[in-house]
Structure formats: structure tokens, C-alpha cells
Amino acid sequence: MTDLPTHARVVIVGGGVVGTSTAYHLTKLGVRDVVLLEQAQLSSGTTWHAAGLVGQLRGHSVMTKLIQYSTRLYADLVEETGLHTGWKQCGSLSVARSDDRMTLLRRTIASARAQGVEVEELSPQEAGDKWPPMRVDDLKGAIWLPGDGKANPTDLTQSLAKGARMRGARIVEGVRVTGIAQAHGRVTGVQTAQGHISADIVVNCAGQWARKLGLMCGVSVPMHSAEHMYIVTGSVPGVHPDLPVMRDPDGYIYFKEEVGGLCMGGFEPVAKPWGMAGIPDHFAFQLLEDDWDQFEILMENALIRVPGLEAAEVKKFYNGPESFTPDNNFLLGEAPELKGFFIGAGFNSMGIASAGGAGRALAEWIHEGAPTMDLWPVDIRRFAGFNNNPTWLHDRVKETLGMHYTMPWPNLEQDSARPFRRSALYDRLATKGAVWGTKMGWERANYFARSPDQATIRYSFGRQNWHDAAAAEHIATRTTAALFDLSSFAKLMVEGRDALATLNRICAANIDRPIGASIYTGMLNARGGYESDLTVMRLGMDRFMVVTGSAQAVHDADHIRQNTAEGAHVWVSDVTNAWSVLAVMGPDAPGLLQTLSRSDLSAIAPATHATIDLGYATVIANRMSYAGEAGFELFVPVEFTLGVYDALQGELTHAGYYALDSLRIEKGFRAWGRELTSDITPFEAGLGFAVDFDKPGGFIGRDALLAQRGQPLRQRIAQFSVEGAGAQLWGGELLLRNGVPVGKVMSAAHGHSIGRPITLCRVEGDNIDRAYLASGTFEMDLAGQRLAATWHAKPPE
Ligand SMILES: Cc1cc2nc3c(=O)[nH]c(=O)nc-3n(C[C@H](O)[C@H](O)[C@H](O)COP(=O)(O)OP(=O)(O)OC[C@H]3O[C@@H](n4cnc5c(N)ncnc54)[C@H](O)[C@@H]3O)c2cc1C
Fold it and tell me: How would you label 209-241 residue by residue, b for 16+ Cβ within 10 Å and e otherwise?
């Protein structure tokens, strides 16, 4: 029996690389009353058998940033703790077998440079020189990342644990957490076989067991385990101790040197789920059965790339289970269901690489009570309770593992475990040729196919097969009228005597407007950055409907609750599922709707709403447009949706999200998660007009904005069009001024009304003002090709 303390400020559950990194960083921030409980031994879960690759470049810049920090930490930790992490900066190569992969690598070079990651393009021969065992005659080229490397997962974990202990953390092995205590919506401690520990904060770093730990206290931790495999061989000709890591994503495989031989593993396109009956409690330092059938696709590809493997002895087959999330990004942050309960789990086979940065970000979040940087791609609030369904997770995880090396085409949709959430119009829209995408589980029409060859998306980096369909929808919206099913909009009711005061403090605009007002506003954090961008409809004195992005329901409801004063008379409820939203947009929209209603629609002023009759239904008509055209968003009770649709649709073009995106980018409308993130302020976004500094009581973020007012802006969102009607931009491209990188494209589309590509970019520098934007020569880097770009002070006509 271990003598456990009865109280700790923070209890961390799980002694893998993530739990120990969190403990290390908490103590570094001065939070020393930390207890880490590990049911077996440190690193005995998934960490011990990881291959230890640390590759910096990821699909989201925040994840890259976290790993960049990891590489520095892993190099330096030995000086502090005296324990080596096994860090070796051997560099890494990624090779391309196809032209498309090479285009991707060239796009990657541009974005890597924008993020300060050193990178170089190599010819096949140059790649072969760096990696002699490799066959190169079938390659198109490669990229070289000298800052990448590898670490020893067990040594790293021990070194982090020692660093935490040195500053006061207590790390106890052989103690299993069996329950989570809570009271009044707050975590209060943990139960173990050796007794209870009360705690202000509990951190779930339980690896594959994190979902189970979440279920103990009503918290969703959506992830599922899958088998992940690699082999270690005897010596292979050409392999030497300083050999870089090598990835061949077209063959789904990676390699690193291991005592004169190779460690070869990969991410096969269809993974093998594991742990359907739950993860066994006793699974320390264990592996699963070898599965050469599952491994075959990797082995075949490895033999193509490294012919010398044919003669090499296979010394060991590692088949270890690892947890994967529905979108292949990990899960970080405070659970929206339970205050004080934090999660750092679901590391999708990149936990070694990510642990340094993720542990620091999680520790800062705990210490500050809010994220200190933009963590949205890994924020646990991007998922909802329905994502925790085990059958859905099981079916989704088969696809997730392979996503590491799947070609990340622009607009790529995940195919598995769908359809998931469907609007009331799903079947009707399917008969009209809807081609579906998905967001927050919703099936949403991206566009409507006009011919059989548009029925499914054919991905490419160039113009895709839906271009003409989206163009027709875009033009119809600008010239006549089109119907969009926007039912996936998240809708939150905020009600109660203190609802106005609460919302007014959380929103940057003044919400104290007459009943019937529709107020466009940001919700900001203390740094003045965007937590969300939304519309508040004042339905009554004490009743507000917050209409926000499809992915934002859990996040925004949590943000409102987190910032509601203790004891305030306010209820927040998610009513997304009660209301469909049909947007009828275009110059003919108001007239057309008027023919179906006895209400006077001309009496509804811009940025207001009213309850109107429409056919047999009674709906809320909101005069607001994301397309920048006349029209209404109709909020329709779900059971009346089909009736309203049938009354409307005869005369309308159906339009989808691709058209909506090109319409809004043309008009310069910023979108949350693209241009608007938690590290961009309204001034930087060009949305200062939507902030009311003078409203009584102020608002969250006001002080930060006042400090910024009148100061030079170091970043700014700006609109640029691109010369060359046929050029296809997707977002992520590098922006250059006078040949020097100054930013990147956050959103891009073809501007069908203006006849050329149109973008919204984030521009960075010492003083980004209008004079800076109006002078200089701007270009975009499109996979190595430079295109002239023009800044627009106002959206082009
Ligand atoms: C074959 C393979 C190769 C990999 N290669 C790489 C790689 O090259 N690079 C990379 O970055 N990542 C790699 N990974 C992924 C990496 O190993 C994981 O992402 C990482 O180890 C996860 O760390 P963790 O701390 O979240 O989980 P774990 O290491 O599993 O730690 C969680 C700990 O929580 C403990 N625990 C659980 N429940 C309780 C409880 N109730 N009470 C107390 N303790 C509890 C467990 O015993 C466990 O020790 C690989 C994974 C596999 C399977």
C-alpha cells in the first residue's frame, strides 16, 4: 500500500509521456502541489513501444508549433534533469512517388517556411544520397527537414518525470484511479483502491483508458483504439547510425535506423480497430499478436522502397494499440461537462512528438484558466456527446489511422461512419443531386451535381469537377435567388433575468438592443482574440438566440457558461436540433418570399428579425446574409421544414456550401476558424466596427483592445485577388511582398462574379497599415509558382 496524500491541487491520471509532460510543465509554472497516479509503471501503457519519430510538420500550424517546442525541449532536458531523452536531430525526408504528392510537398515547403520550419526540396538523386538504402528511380522528388529527429519514448518519460519531481510533484506508480468525485458540476477529487484524494483539478492523461475515465464522470472523450504496427530488422546495407528518418507516404510507410537495422512501420489505409470490449485494466508493457496480413500492404511497399530489406532478418514485430480520435487531432482542454476536469489524450500515434508542446499548452490552460494560444484544432470542445458513440467511433477509426499519409486533398471529406447527422431536408436534397460534405457530424450539401460526372468529388490540386456547378449556384445567388439549407448552424438559447447582462459582458457588441434586433458580434477572450463570431437575436426581454457556426455549439455554450457569474439567473440550452435554417438569398429573394407570406417582409429592416407566416408555417425571418445579398435566413421549427421547403423550392436554385464560401470571400466576410481565431483581435480582423467600447459594464477583452487601439498592427486580415482566371487556390498558400514572405492565405475560392481567384489572407509584420498594403508588390506562392496578387481596400465589384 502506498501512502497517498489526502489532497492535491492537481491530480494527473496516467504516467505516459503526456501525463509526465503535463506534470513537468505545471511545476515549471509554479504549480507544485501535483500528484501523478499511474496504475502500473511510468510509460507502461502505449508510450514504451512507440517508434519515437518526431516530425514537425502537421496539417494545422498550431500542432506544428507545439512540436517545434517539443524538439527544443527534448534536446535541452538532459541539462536540467541529468537524464537523456534519446533525442537525436537526424533530420527527415519525405519522398513523392506521384506528381500530385510532389505538388503537395511543394505546397508544404511554402507553409513550412511561413512557420519557421527549415525545409528544402531535393531531387530524387539528392534524396538517395541522404538515404542510401532507398530506391529512387521511381520518385518525383523529396523534401528535407533538418530539424526533425527521434527520441527514446521511455527515457523521455523518465526525464520529464524527474524534472517534475525535482520541483515538487509526487509521482506514484501502482495506483489505479477507480472513480472521479464531483459536486455541483465541479470535480472534487479521485477515488483509488488506496483511498480518496481531494483535488481542485483532475487531469485525464490516461491514454487508451481516457474514454473510460471520462465515462466515470459523464465526460465524453471520443476516441477508439486501433492496432498500429512496425518491425525492427537486422542490418540492412547502407544503413548507418546517422541515417535520417524517411517517410514514403504514397506507400504508407516510414523508416528509421535502429541498431544497424531499420524500424519500418506505417499507416495503412484501412486500420484494424481494437478494444471493442473495453481496454483491459492490466495491459502494462504488453503487445498484441503479430498480424502479417494487416501488415502486408506496408511490407510490400517497404520492399519497393528498400530492396535490401528482402534479405534482412525481422528481429521483432511490434503491434501496439493506440487511441485515435475522429479527426486524427488530439484532445486537449477542460471538459465542457465538468469544471476542473482536463483532458490530454487521443494522440493518434503522434504523442511522442506532441507531448512536449501539448503538455505545456495543457499546463498553461490549467494555470491560466483558459488557453493561452489558439488551440482550436485540438480543443476537446470541437466534439459533442454524440461523437462518443462506440459503434460510430469503431467505424470511424478504420479511416483515421490512415489519414496520416492519405493525400490531404483540398476539401477532402472523411468517408467513414456516414451519414451521421441529417437535416430534415436530407432526402429531398439528395434527389436534387446534393453532394455531401460533413461538419460537426452534419451532412451538408457542398454543391448540387448538374451532370453525372459531378456526382462525386474528384479531388485534385487544380480545379475540381464541381467548379461549374458551384459557379452556377454562386451566380444565381448574385443575380436571382438561391436556397441554402443552413440547418447545421448551432443555436443556443440564453434565457433568464440575467441573460442580457451576461451576454453583454461576453459579447463585444452591445446586445441591449430592442426586441427583434439581430446583432452581429464577436465573443472575445481576455487577450481580445476571437472565441467566436456570431449573431445574437433578441427574441424577448430575457430571451436570446445565439446563432453560431456549426462546429461551435459545445465550445460557445461552454464559453458562455464559463463566463457566467456564480448564481446568475441564466440558462443556456442547445436548441440546434429544434430549428432548421433555410436561407433564401439573392435580389429576387424578398419578392419571392413575399408571395408566400401575408406578413409584410419589407417592414423587416436589415439586421432585424420578425416572426412571419410562410405557407402553413410560422417562422422567424432574420434579415442577415452571409452571401452578401438581399434575403432572409428562415428559422423553421423542424416539423414544419418539409412544408416550407415544398412551398419554396419550385422557383429557386439549390445552392451549397462551396458557393456560400465563394460568395462570402468575395464580399470579404471573415469566418470563425479561418480568419477569426483566438489570437486575432477585431482591429486586426478589420471588424472594429462590431465592437462597442462605450456600452455600460464593458466586455471581456476590452482592456486588451483599448491597449491595442491606435498602436501599429502586427497582423491584419486583408483581401487579395489573384491574377490568372484559371489559377486554383485552396488556402494555406504563402503571401509574399516584394519577394519576402509576409503571411498566408486563410480562405480562398474562385470569385465567380469577379472572374478570378479571391482570398482572405493574414498579413504579418511590424506595422500593417493601409499604406503598407497599398504599396509593394504582392504575390502568392502556388506550389512554387508565383502569381501576382492585388490588395483590395474594399471588396471588388
Ligand atoms: C506501434 C506504435 C508506434 C508509435 N510511434 C510513434 C512515433 O514514432 N512518434 C510519436 O510521436 N508517437 C508514436 N506513437 C504514439 C505514442 O506512443 C502515443 O501517442 C503516446 O505514447 C501516448 O502517450 P499517453 O501518455 O497519452 O498514453 P500512455 O503512454 O498509454 O499513458 C497513459 C497511462 O495512463 C495509465 N492509466 C490509465 N488508466 C489509469 C487509471 N485509471 N489510473 C491510473 N493510471 C491509469 C496507463 O497505465 C498508462 O501508463 C506510436 C504508437 C504505437 C502504438
Answer: bbbebbebbebbbbbbbbbbbbbbbeebeebee
Give how far the C-alpha of residue 95 lies from the chain's centroid of Cα atoms, to the nearest Å.
Answer: 26
Rounded distance between C-alpha atoms, residue 456 and residue 568, angstroms: 50
* Nearest residue by C-alpha to atom 41 in ligand 1: 177
CA–CA separation, 33 and 18 (whole Å): 18
**CA separation (Å) from 36 to 206, 221, 314, 702, 732?**
11, 20, 38, 38, 40
Distance CA 485, CA 581 (A): 6
Pocket test for ligand 1, best of 47, 88, 231, 258 (most atoms within 8 A of CB): 47
Please give the backbone phi and psi of residue 598, each rounded to the nearest 5 degrees, phi first: -90, -10
- Length of the chain, in residues: 797
Q: How far away, in angstroms, is 30 Cα from ligand 1 center?
A: 26
Closest ligand 1 atom number to CA of residue 354: 11
Instruction: Collapse the DSSP code of 239 into the 3-class scheme (helix H, G, I; strand E, B; otherwise coil) and give the result.
Output: coil
**Protein residue whose Cα sits closest to atom 2 of ligand 1:** 50
> pLDDT digits over 628-673, tens only?
999 999 999 999 999 999 999 777 999 999 999 999 999 999 999 9
Q: What whole-number distance in Å separates Cα of residue 388 and Cα of residue 371?
A: 23
Mutate to test the pocket of ligand 1, among 69, 209, 317 (most ligand atoms within 8 A of CB): 209
3-state SS string for 260-305: CEEEEEECCCCCCEECCCCCCCCCCCCCCCCCHHHHHHHHHHHHHH
Please report how the helices 61-81 and 153-166 are oriented relative to each other, as an axis angle in degrees rounded to 10.
70
From the number of C-beta atoms within 10 Å of its C-beta (0-12, 13-18, 19+), residue 569 rates as middle
The span from the CA of 346 to the CA of 537, in Å, is 37
pTM of the model as a whole: 0.97
Q: For 695-750, what is each residue's pLDDT tens digit? A: 999 999 999 999 999 999 999 999 999 998 789 999 999 999 999 999 999 999 99
- 778 vs 780: CA distance, rounded Å: 7
Burial class of 652 by CB neighbour count within 10 A (0 to 12, 13 to 18, 19+): buried
pLDDT over threshold 90, residue 2: no
According to the 3-state scheme, what is the secondary structure of 199-218?
EEEEEECCHHHHHHHHHCCC
Atom of ligand 1 nearest to the CA of 206: 34
More confident position, 797 or 455: 455
* Ligand 1 centroid from CA 46, angstroms: 3
Strands (E), 691-783: 715-722, 734-737, 740-751, 756-764, 778-782
DSSP of 370-435? S-SS--GGGBGGGS-GGGG-HHHHHHHHHHHGGGGTS---TT----SS---B--TTHHHHHHTTEE
Q: Could you identify the residue written with the cell 510509460?
A: 43
Cell output for 301: 511497399
Give 400 Cα–ligand 1 centroid separation in angstroms: 17
Q: Quick check: 1 pLDDT over 80?
A: no
Q: Hey, whose CA ends up nearest to atom 19 of ligand 1? A: 351
Cβ < 6 Å from ligand 1: which residues?
A: 13-19, 37-40, 44-47, 49-53, 176-177, 205-209, 213, 228, 230, 318, 320, 322, 345, 347, 349-353
Distance from C-alpha of 2 to C-alpha of 39, rounded to nearest angstrom: 12
Task: Tell me the CA–centroid distance for residue 322 and ligand 1, in Å.
Answer: 7
Asked if the bond preceding 244 is cis, omega within 30° of 0, the reply is no
Q: Which amino acid is at 720?
A: F
Amino acid at position 199, single letter: A
pLDDT digits (tens, 9 = 90+) for 42-72: 999 999 999 999 999 888 889 999 999 999 9
Q: Are 25 and 359 in contact (CB under 8 A)?
A: yes
Q: Can you tell me the distance from the alpha carbon of 623 to that of 634, in angstroms, rounded to the nearest whole number?
A: 9
23 three-state secondary structure: helix
- Measured from the Cα of 19, ligand 1's closest atom is 25
